[in-house]
Amino acid sequence: MRIFLLPLTTRQALIYCQRAAPNPQAKASIPDRITKKAAETWAQWETAQSGWRKQIVKYGNQGLQRIPYQEWGLKSFPPSNPKLQAEQITKNEKFDVVYPGNVMHKEDVPKVMARLARERKQLHWNRFIGSMVAMPFTVPFILVPVIPNIPFFYLVYRCWSHWRALKGSDHLDFILDHRLYRPVSSPELEDLYEQVAPDAPDFKFLTRSQILDGSAPPEQIILPADSHNVVAKATGVPELSGEVERALWQIQRQFQQEKSQQASENPKGGETQTDNKQR
């Protein structure tokens, strides 16, 4: 198992866990079998040329794109259990945390991991419970003919997604608490950042108080939007292409929303009045 920590902006980083290859002779767990079946069904629906399946896939993919990239990152960690944790502690098994040392400082690696593990834990728990509570209210949609009960299956998926994110954050917390990680600056990643973002500023870990009191420098994007395939190639992890693409799309959207909000708070009319006063 390897953990990748990729700076996206001067404040935000993506975390992704590359799991060890599964034992082909081992029996898949029930959640894994359900997940596999759901993925196969979704892939089958994506081949539809028209009809309700095509529409569900279209809007479903748009919804998946908007699920926070931090949640996807936590879901990449396999759920742990006491037996496995005891073995890892006994063996003092350390996991490589691969990061670009020319963009991120080594001492910031555990700080960023801890923030990603803990800052959204309560949110995932609240939304896991909320999805569970809302499920019974979607039962009447079963009466709709032909089309499956989409609201119910959506809540099931979100419930599962938040649960997996919770378990992922617990696993990451365990790795941090027992120091079962080893920061490794990858030459391939260093070359990648030098290639795609030669003039970008470095990643800076900021405390919450620095952000709230306004003493932090403005946030800037490090990785360009079209770098996702290059990241996947440099790391040798094809899955990172989709993860990075989604994260950068969300960050670009976040920056645009903040820019629009600032523009609405400081309209041109106010600037004109100030100019008139100066004249």
Automatic annotation (TrEMBL):
The chain crosses the membrane at residues 128-157. It comes from the Eukaryota. One of its GO terms (cellular component) is mitochondrial inner membrane. InterPro entries: Mit_KHE1 (IPR018786). Keywords: Membrane, Transmembrane, Transmembrane helix. Residues 253-279 are annotated as: Disordered. GO terms for biological process: potassium ion transport; proton transmembrane transport. Residues 253-273 have a biased composition (Polar residues). PANTHER family: K+-H+ EXCHANGE-LIKE PROTEIN, TRANSMEMBRANE PROTEIN. This is Mitochondrial K+-H+ exchange-related-domain-containing protein. It comes from Exophiala spinifera.
